[in-house]
Amino acid sequence: MQDKILPSINDPRQLEKLYRENKSAFKQAFTALYPKHKGQPLADFWNERLHYDTEDINWGNTKEILAVVSLSILAGLIAKIPAILSIWESYFYPRNIGFILFPILAGYFAWKNKLHSNKIIFIILAMLIGVVYINLLPNEPSDTLSLACIHILLYLWAILGFAYVGDHRNIGTKRIDFLKYNGDLIVMTSMILLAGGLMSAVTVGLFSILGFNIEKFYGEYIAIIGLAASPVLATYLSQKNPSLVGKISPVIAKIFSPLVLVMLIIYLVAMLFSKKDPYNDREFLIIFNVLLIGVMAIIFFSVVENNKLSKSQIWILLLLSIVTIIVNSIALSAILFRIWEFGLTPNRGAVLGSNLLILINLLLVTVRIFKTLSNPSDTSRMGKTIATYLPVYFIWAILVTFLFPLIFDFK
User: Fold this and answer.
1) How far apart are CA 73 and CA 100, in angstroms?
2) C-beta separation of 61 from 34 below 8 A
3) Long-range contacts for 174-182 (Cβ within 8 Å, ≥24 apart)?
4) Where is the signal peptide (predicted)?
5) Distance of alpha carbon 333 from its chain centroid, rounded?
């Protein structure tokens, strides 16, 4: 994009055309070029335009607000299906919790991006296949059922990503934006839930003073509907007001990256003196893998949330990636050891495949981070490396969700 902007730096019509083709890529490229052209009237104008932050929250128009309210109510109704249809909660929620959220958000982005009818049909069919399949699985407790319930969330998340990317020409850039959206969604939803939790506590407390015990009613209806609706509201607010949380997520990533690096090194050293190890302790291996996924997420969000990283930040990410690869290798060797000793099970097969995919992804990202050290101003390729790999996780989710129960005879 810089190569296209540079010859047009004094051509307002061409700059506007490039901006409308790809707004996020244009902003990133222009921001990198601006210091060399600071003082030029057109360059200064575009810098102000791209980095102008309004103090007022954009609530959108009436049509958009009604759409969000309708989607929020629909999410709440889906969450209350067990009560409405007298279905066991222990049966419904493990299988269908993802269908409370992801179809609603996918519908929002399909509407927002004005997707073609064939893509909308694909999204609907993919969702229907998922919901019908997961609810037709035998109700007897099994490892393959648990794995399917977990991995169908990744399957639905990938479909949401498809709706988010829409008809955008630059798929790689849009996938990076999708990862940024996930970071913003977590931050915004957390703030909404915190505020909602405080309001709920005050409301229940005030009514209890008057002698009305509304705790059960509030928890079964208001709280559940609020939980289901909060990601919808968070999505709407973050999309209408990118600057609202756009500055928070990079700060969080910047703060936690060095802290996690130090914690991880201390943890590995402490493990050497501990009586527990992932080779002989199944619970320890599970916690080890959860730690791995969490650290990997911090690395990825640190990369995609920052358009420009300092050399010290890149070094921290490189060291964090290397240490995470060590953690992944330990976990992988522990899984292979347990398979060798006790045989292959659905859980061990799923964890083995997941760790292999994560290891490959980490290696690719680490190589890209290392190459970025020679050119710290160009961090976009790190994000593209992550974005290019995303479909691999989608394929893996399909395999575990739909094929593992058949491969392992629903055990």
Assistant:
1) 11
2) no
3) 175/387, 175/388, 175/390, 176/24, 176/304, 176/383, 176/384, 176/386, 176/387, 177/24, 179/300, 179/301, 179/304, 179/383, 179/386, 179/387, 180/249, 180/304, 180/305, 181/235, 181/238, 181/239, 182/301
4) none
5) 28
**Token reading at 214:** 């509304």
Matching residue, tokens 């931050």: 187
What is the distance in angstroms between the CA of the first residue and the CA of the last residue of the chain? 52
Extract the tokens encoding 236. 């709407």
Please tell me which residue, 307 or 152, carries the higher pLDDT value: 152
| Residue in 393, 234, 257, 240 with CA at minimum distance from that of residue 312 | 257
Note the pLDDT of residue 144: 92
d(CA 139, CA 92): 11
Q: What is the chain's length? A: 411
Please report, for residues 266, 323, 363, the alpha-carbon distance to residue 263 in angstroms, rounded to integers and kept in the order given.
Answer: 5, 11, 21
Q: How far apart are CA 20 and CA 389, in angstroms?
A: 27
Query: Among all chains, which residue has been given the structure tokens 């690096």?
Result: 261
pLDDT of 3 higher than 70: no
Exposure of 101 by Cβ count < 10 A (0-12 exposed, 13-18 middle, 19+ buried)? buried
- The answer to whether 44 and 185 are in contact (CB under 8 A) is no
Q: What is the DSSP letter of 382?
A: H
DSSP of 74-113, one letter per residue? Answer: HHHHHHTHHHHHT--HHHHHHHHHHHHHHHHHHHHHHHHT
pLDDT at 143 over 80: yes
CA distance 352 to 333: 9
Give kind and range of the element (H or E) at residue 270: helix 248-272
**What pTM value is reported for the model?**
0.81
**What are phi and psi for residue 243, nearest 5 degrees?**
-75, -10
Write the burial class of residue 122 (CB in 10 Å: 0-12 exposed, 13-18 middle, 19+ buried).
Answer: middle
- Model pLDDT for residues 213-253, shown as the tens digit of each residue: 888 888 888 888 889 899 999 998 888 777 677 667 667 77
For residue 270, what are its two tokens? Answer: 């402490």
Distance of CA 258 to the CA centre of its chain: 21
**How far is residue 361's CA from residue 401's CA, in Å, rounded to a whole number?**
21
Place of tokens 């829409």: 166
Based on its alpha-carbon atoms, the radius of gyration of the chain, rounded to whole angstroms, reads 24
Is pLDDT of 358 > 60? yes
pLDDT tens digits, one per residue of 242-276: 767 766 766 777 787 888 888 888 888 888 887 77
